[in-house]
Specification:
Thrombin, subunit H; Lipoxygenase-1; 2 domains; 380 residues; mainly beta; six-stranded antiparallel beta barrel; six-stranded antiparallel beta sheet
């Protein structure tokens, strides 16, 4: 039986023999890995993950060299586990899934799920979930991509997870270090001295700086909210910044046009601000997460922390994550939550109501001075 994304079928046994292969020979275990996450019905973690180099009592690996061959023992899953997510990911989110070519997942001798990955520039994807309904275990084929890799996906679930290659970590590293040598993202001014960005951009990296055509300055982390993926930075030695203005009221409306400005793929797409346009396609995130809104403006790695502007040039949200499927599902933290975060941090953000719509060039000209590229790295 060939499963297309979204299709499901009942499992015949509580012990499932599975095999995952990719068309790029040898990529599994070297470039990419497979993680199985035990979660409840709300996709909240209920136990430690099973990685290709880290088995669990409910999962045994038989082969992890160029192939992932394993046995899932459903009767041994942790208490309250209702689902097991199968996540294909690139180690350290250091490249795109498309480098794998395609994958094929076989369950026993009769179930198969495969997908070409040429269009996926993401770092991780939930390729399937095993779930329980009315005491019957089933498997559903999925293609839920995460632009920023397994670590960011797990972080949204409240699960700290090291997605580095197990043999490529630094042997002398201290406990609070990470294999990431650096990261870039986008931030925007929220006061004369403060920049707002995503927590996952700076996580584990101590040396922070901001850059624009106005110069390059050092920054330091002030407050980090990992659950909502928000980070407030204080800029050191820079002249007063040009803070952007947040939208007052209930936030963006369903179907409203939006524009994002940021620094995606820094070093590849040039040093200037990149513009993308779309609409608000949903007022909630996955599993009815009321802290997020969904939008269709295209984003790329490096877009994290970008402001989402309404037609009046006011900030309605902050870009945080993406599920790059055919629907172009991208997510932003709503402005109301961002404003609550800033208020708790003692930063009086500017708020306003737009009186007239701006053209996209007008919006860019009005906002560009408040946009900054974030560069994060280890201390030298």
């Amino acid at each position: 039986m060939i499963l297309m994304p979204g299709a499901n079928v009942a499992l015949e046994s509580v012990r499932c023999e599975m095999v995952l292969t990719c068309s790029r020979a040898g990529a599994l275990g070297d470039y990419a890995g497979l993680a199985l996450l035990a979660v409840d019905d709300q996709r909240q973690p209920v136990g430690e993950p099973a990685l290709m180099h880290a088995p669990q009592p409910w999962l045994a690996w038989h082969d992890t060299v160029g192939v992932a061959r394993f046995t899932l023992a459903l009767e041994q899953l942790p208490a309250h586990c209702e689902r097991v997510l199968l996540v294909l990911y690139v180690f350290g989110a250091l490249g795109p899934l498309r480098e794998l070519g395609s994958f094929q997942l076989k369950v026993g001798a009769q179930i198969e799920h495969s997908l070409a990955l040429a269009e996926y520039g993401d770092g991780a994807m939930v390729i399937a979930e095993v779930y329980r309904r009315n005491d019957q275990w089933k498997i559903r084929a999925l293609a839920e991509a995460s632009a920023y890799g397994l670590g960011a996906l797990a972080r949204r679930m409240g699960l700290p997870l090291d997605d580095r290659h197990p043999q490529r970590t630094q042997p002398e590293a201290s406990d609070d270090s990470t294999a990431r040598q650096g990261a870039t993202g986008t931030g925007f001014a929220v006061s004369a001295q403060h920049i707002l960005t995503c927590a996952h951009v700076i996580e584990g990296l101590e040396q922070l700086s901001i850059t624009s055509f106005d110069g390059r300055y050092k920054a330091e982390s002030v407050v980090v909210d990992r659950k909502n993926d928000l980070a407030l930075l204080r800029v050191i030695g820079a002249p007063p910044l040009s803070p952007l203005t947040f939208r007052e009221g209930m936030g963006c409306e369903l179907g409203e046009s939006v524009v994002t400005l940021g620094f995606p793929l820094a070093g590849l797409a040039g040093g200037g601000v990149q513009v993308s346009q779309g609409v608000v396609s949903g007022l909630f995130g996955l599993r009815d997460d009321a802290s997020l809104m969904q939008f269709t403006a295209p984003i790329q790695p490096g877009s994290s922390g970008s402001p989402v502007f309404d037609p009046q040039g006011l900030v309605g949200g902050l870009v945080t994550s993406s599920m790059a499927d055919a629907q172009n599902m991208n997510f932003a933290v709503k402005s109301a939550l961002v404003l609550a975060f800033l208020e708790a941090a003692g930063v009086p953000a500017q708020r306003g109501r737009g009186e007239r719509s701006l053209s996209t060039p007008q919006l860019v000209r009005a906002s560009q001075a408040g946009l900054w590229r974030i560069d994060a790295s280890h201390l030298q």
